Every structure is written in C-alpha cells, then in structure tokens.
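quick q for whoever's on today - can somebody do inverse folding on this one?? i tried earlier but teh output was garbage lol. tokens:
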C-alpha cells in the first residue's frame, strides 16, 4: 500500500513537473497550466483525478475490448457574426460523422495491417450523438445558433462561452459535450478544457473549434485552413476534453501518461514520411515518432489513430470525472452500463421469498430484458422487453439459494445478486 502510494506521488510529480516548465504549446494545455498555477485547489483536484485515472487503467487491461459503446450527447453552439459563420446543419452533421469514424477506427485512412504501428491502433468504443433532448427534457436539434457582435473570439478571455459576453452559455456539462463553433483570433484551430477542471470551472467546460476547421464541408478548409479541412481539430480537442495529453507530453521527450504511445521529442507538423526519426527520443534505428496520432500536430489528412492506451485513458475519464455523461438523457435514453453503480437498480426485498420488485430512477431507459441466472450461469427465466418500472417478479417456484438478475439493453448488461429463502 505504502509502495503504491509512493508510486503515485512520484508519478504525479513526474506528470506535472513538465507542464510547468513549458512554453510553445496548444492553448488547451496552456490554459490548463495557467489555471493550475493560479488555483492550488485545482492542482490537488488534478492530482486526485490522476490517481483515480491510473487506478482505473490498471484495473482494465487494454487487450480486451469492453464491448460496451459509450455514446456522448453533443450540443453544438454556433456563434456567428457574419452569415458565412452561421454554418449549415449539414456541416455540423459531417463533424459528428467524422468523430464517430475516428473514435471507432472507421476512418478511411487508418493504418494498413502491414504498418509497424498498426498493432497500436484502436477502436476507443466511444461515439457521439447530437442531442435530441435539451437540459429541460424538451426536444432539440442539438444545435443552438447565436448572433454576436464579436468579430472573432479568443481563448484568453473565453467570451464565446458566456451569453453576457456575446457568446452562448454551455448546457449542463455533466450531461453534454458542448462544442462551440465560431471565428477565432489568429491561427488558433481550437481549444478544450480537461476533465479535472469540470468541478472548479463548470461554466467553461467544453471544446471550441473555429468554423473554418469544423467538419469537412461548407466553410471547412476556407480562408487558408486547407490542411485542416477534414474535421480532425475536433478529434484532437475532444481527446484533451477526455483527458489525453499531447503525445510528446508537452516537454522534451515528455510523458503523455499513456504507455503505448511512443515518447516523442516535440510536436510534428505537415506530414512526415514514415519512419520518421529526427524527433525520436530513442535515436535512430527504430520506427520513430508516432506522428500520425490524433494528439500530435500534423495535418488533418496525415493523422489516423488513437492507441488502445489512449482509448483506455479516455474511458477512464468517462468512468471518473465525466461519469455523469453515462446517465445523460441528452440522446433520449440512459444507457445501462458497467459504471452505473448497483444503486441505479434496486431489488426489494432481497433476500426474498421469491417475489420481489426491480426498480430504477433512470428515466427513458431503452427496452430492457431481464434474465434470472443460477450460480452455474444457466438461464432459468427470461422477462423480455420491459418498458416500465417498478417491475414485479415472481420466482416462487425456484429453490432457496443465490441467483443473478441480469439486465440487458441490447449491448450492455448489469448483474445483481439475489437470495431466495423461504
Ligand atoms: N489546438 C491545436 C491548435 O490550435 C489543434 C491542433 C489540431 N490539429 C489538426 N491537424 N487539426 O493548433
Ligand atoms: Zn492540443
Ligand atoms: Ca507515451
């Protein structure tokens, strides 16, 4: 235990010491560091969060896919000054589709099987849906449109995130991924907040992307942003929003806290030719940088992968600081999930004489099937397509003993133990 604690303290020191001494970097990281310096409580928040993250990762080997797709409800806030900046619904749909391809390893430029880094490519099992319910439970297109007098926005003052400053307030960030689309100052493509900031900086949680690099149609690629025209700025920024660091760890051969991304000396631009060694931390003689990673700085069409370790780190965030997204009704339903604690379904009484009630506070659940399984894993009874709770179960014929109640909503299942004693 002491050894473990020590390990974490060392790890945390290593993880954050590099962040403090850097200069040239993406504004997501810059803002994160700034807040960390100014706000000691955030610093301890980040440390706590990293311990939980590392523990979750240790408990979940990356070799097996979970089979459980996490879908994140998204709201897109278009904040426009000119009509051109008021991008089309179609451009927004194109961005959601790109995210679903990139995060599920369905991108057309994913590495071929004979590529040395193919083995590291991963389906993160994370998907995105445009919200169909707003925070009040009303129907929505998942898109808000706000006219502004601001000609362009900056990451320094975050105005785009506040109605009173010419922007648009975020929707409850514990239930939605907020994506703002607007014109940005300078050549900044986009920026994001990190999961550990959610508690202390709730109103600024989310991702901002300039409209010229959002999606792959309409204004995407316009005004000189041709090399960022296929929607991967959002892929990169949402990586940060789900706790990923740049692959070079924002330091000379720094640590991104992911074990299957290669250490890299610094960021890469344009599109290097593989194998690319000049920035390598291990010198020549190997395959060099993993520059095609979404968390590097290469051109959109040059990036093509998250690793399994990055997928796991993002899923850890979705089981940690961003856990409440898993019970969001933003896309019309709550999902049964491994991370929903046992209390999300109550069984009463337990032990029982064979008749008991299953209940849940979760609203808008997808249709659920319930199976009663004995301790040998044999299915004994099945109740299909249950749509409302509380649900009364009578198993008076079953002998005394322990059983499992297995609840499934198609892809995901949740199991609880019951005892029958007459
Ligand atoms: N925050 C980074 C920037 O503004 C985003 C880099 C995304 N890279 C990309 N090829 N889309 O520079
Ligand atoms: Zn970045
Ligand atoms: Ca690494």
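ok took a stab at it. sequence:
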């Amino acid at each position: 235990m002491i050894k473990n604690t020590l390990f974490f303290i060392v790890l945390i020191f290593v993880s954050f010491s590099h962040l403090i001494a850097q200069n040239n970097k993406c504004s997501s990281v810059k803002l994160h560091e700034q807040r960390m310096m100014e706000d000691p409580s955030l610093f301890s928040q980040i440390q706590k969060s990293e311990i939980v993250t590392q523990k979750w990762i240790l408990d979940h080997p990356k070799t097996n896919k979970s089979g459980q797709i996490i879908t994140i409800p998204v709201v897109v806030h278009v904040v426009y000054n000119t009509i051109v900046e008021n991008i089309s619904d179609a451009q927004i749909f194109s961005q959601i589709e790109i995210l679903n391809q990139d995060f599920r390893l369905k991108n057309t430029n994913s590495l071929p099987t004979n590529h040395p880094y193919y083995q590291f490519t991963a389906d993160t099992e994370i998907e995105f849906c445009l919200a169909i319910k707003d925070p009040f439970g009303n129907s929505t297109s998942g898109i808000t449109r706000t006219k502004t007098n601001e000609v362009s926005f900056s990451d320094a003052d975050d105005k785009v995130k506040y109605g009173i400053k010419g922007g648009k307030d975020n929707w409850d960030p514990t239930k939605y991924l907020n994506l703002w689309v607007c014109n940005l100052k300078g050549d900044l493509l986009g920026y994001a907040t990190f999961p550990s900031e959610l508690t202390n900086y709730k109103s600024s949680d989310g991702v901002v992307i300039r409209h010229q690099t959002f999606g792959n149609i309409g204004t995407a690629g316009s005004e000189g942003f041709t090399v960022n025209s296929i929607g991967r700025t959002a892929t990169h920024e949402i990586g940060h929003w789900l706790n990923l660091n740049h692959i070079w760890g924002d330091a000379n051969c720094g640590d991104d806290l992911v074990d299957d991304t290669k250490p890299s000396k610094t960021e890469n631009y344009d599109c290097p030719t593989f194998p690319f060694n000049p920035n390598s931390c291990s010198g020549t003689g190997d395959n060099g940088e993993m520059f095609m990673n979404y968390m590097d700085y290469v051109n959109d069409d040059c990036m093509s992968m998250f690793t399994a370790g990055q997928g796991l780190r993002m899923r850890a965030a979705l089981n940690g600081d961003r856990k409440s997204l898993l019970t969001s009704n933003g896309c019309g339903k709550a999902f049964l999930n491994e991370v929903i604690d046992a209390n999300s379904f109550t069984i009463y009484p337990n032990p029982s004489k064979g008749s008991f009630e299953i209940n849940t506070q979760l609203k808008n659940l997808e249709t659920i099937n319930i199976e009663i399984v004995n301790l040998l894993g044999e299915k004994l009874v099945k109740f299909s397509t249950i749509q409302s709770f509380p649900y009364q179960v009578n198993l008076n014929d079953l002998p005394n003993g322990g059983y499992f109640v297995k609840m499934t909503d198609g892809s995901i299942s949740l199991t609880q133990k019951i005892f029958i004693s007459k």
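fwiw Residues 83 and 147 are 9 Å apart (CA to CA). also Residues 354-420 form a domain with the Immunoglobulin-like fold (CATH 2.60.40.3080). so keep that in mind when u check it
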